[in-house]
Write a structure and sequence with these properties.
By secondary structure, the chain is mainly beta. The chain is 7% helix and 41% strand. The chain is globular, with a radius of gyration of 13 Å.
Length: 113
């Protein structure tokens, strides 16, 4: 049910895009972490990323792209449920949106308002 509610909130086209990143922050147990991982899809407002860490909804995380060292602050807005295709993934959304993913073929709805 939570996944359906999340889908209804989507405002921007999602694009399958694997990008190597370093995801860092504080996990749900209060421990600092930094892991090299990747995005699975991106949108103008955020991304879905793989993670081995237990994170909480609403918490902030940092993303640093491996390719060009761009750094951005994101908030966790979705957690993949155990036993589903989303297991091991989290959805993150910009704290302050900006051009970040370096995609030359961005969908029309990604244009600035």
């Amino acid at each position: 049910m939570a996944t359906q509610q999340y889908a209804e909130r989507r405002r921007w086209t999602r694009v399958p895009h694997k990008l190597r990143i370093i995801l860092s922050g504080v996990d749900a147990d209060g421990f600092n972490f930094a892991e090299e991982t990747e995005t699975t899809v991106v949108s103008k407002e955020g991304a879905a990323v793989r993670t081995a860490y237990n994170l909480k909804l609403g918490q902030e995380v940092s993303v640093c792209t491996k390719e060009n060292s761009r750094v951005g602050q994101f908030q966790v807005v979705w957690l993949g449920a155990k036993g589903t295709a989303g297991e091991g993934k989290v959805g993150i959304e910009w704290v302050e949106p900006r051009c970040f993913w370096g995609i030359d073929f961005a969908p029309e709805d990604w244009a600035s308002k």
